[in-house]
């Protein structure tokens, strides 16, 4: 990856939230709550559709940042503030900015946005071994 | 920010159900108990960290990180919670109720039935490798409330899960959710049975009524006021339209008292008047606020806006001007 400079932006990642994506990630995270795979149950509870589960949101934030760093990054932590639901049929767009970088320790601010607004506002801390 | 009320002496009795402070005290006592209980029993992961679940997870996420594949694979750090997720049986399948379960149950029983997760924070101490057997221990750490939120009044409840490999803590998760009383929406009113014909020519008038304005159409070309509204100025034939807001006072120019037949939504007899406005137009409306027998030609009236249902506001006329 290129040099890590505070203020530089990460390339955006756009994820098409198909029902298949919402359901397969819910099951891959062993989350069997019906609102993540059963449209009728989700709607009966007042939701527009099935929606992404939190374990997947965490996984996607991780993927977004490590897609950018490459596999050598060591993740220290991910803090997510949860916002609006990410419904099936919507699009989830990740954007990010390097907030801090010193001695190989990097902090990235990430936003995952859907049509309703911010789905996840995240701070990711990681270490890059060979970065100065 | 922590549970404020000590548990001692706060045992509320069934006879005091109406008092809100007792609900708060009850919830806080349970919260103190849950926080005081510390970390609950460690729940073992059903399976050790394994490459099959890692591959399934990475495929579903679309994560092509090569570290998650091959003989030296590590588990994706963000996958930590997956290892100890209960199966389709969910939490009911868990062995015993914890004080935190009791607290969450008490929220539901006292009307705080809504739930929304607000924060999820992971801390990773090291990578996990296939073959490691994990356990997870949960402790409640904080309660804050009652707070007024956009969703309704509620409490923020925070707990921390620690995952262990043998006795070594390998990751933590802070999880915060809001338990709230869903906002009660007033039941929609029965729609008023008589509805005006609203179209592009007249919509401004009815929008004005909802805002408490008596709007009179005005030709945007020559300035002539006209009522009822229409598409074309009868004087200069312009279709450019505007409006002015009338003062809302006038005099009865003419009226009828309707006795029969019955009209849905109205009680007979009722008076309907043509009211002459000082602005120079006449407008039809019900006269209310006095018996129909007291209505007379020349009587000063002023407009009053009445909400007939959730959508319709009608301008009506009551006795008295220059108020």
UniProtKB/TrEMBL annotation, chain A:
Domain MaoC-like residues, every copy: 22-114
Gene3D superfamilies, per database record: Hotdog Thioesterase
Xref: SUPFAM superfamilies: Thioesterase/thiol ester dehydrase-isomerase
Family: Belongs to the enoyl-CoA hydratase/isomerase family.
Protein name: Beta-hydroxyacyl-ACP dehydratase
Organism of provenance: Microbispora corallina
UniProtKB/TrEMBL annotation, chain B:
Domain ChsH2 C-terminal OB-fold: 243-306
The UniProt record lists the keyword DNA-binding: yes
Region (Disordered): 1-22
Alphabetically ordered keywords of this record: DNA-binding
One Pfam family of this chain: FAS1_DH_region
Start and end residues of each ChsH2 rubredoxin-like zinc ribbon domain: 206-240
Gene Ontology MF annotations: DNA binding
InterPro entries in the cross-refs: ChsH2_C, ChsH2_Znr, FAS1-like_DH_region, HotDog_dom_sf, NA-bd_OB-fold, Thioester_dehydratase-like
FAS1-like dehydratase domain boundaries: 45-173
Protein name according to UniProt: DNA-binding protein
Organism: Microbispora corallina
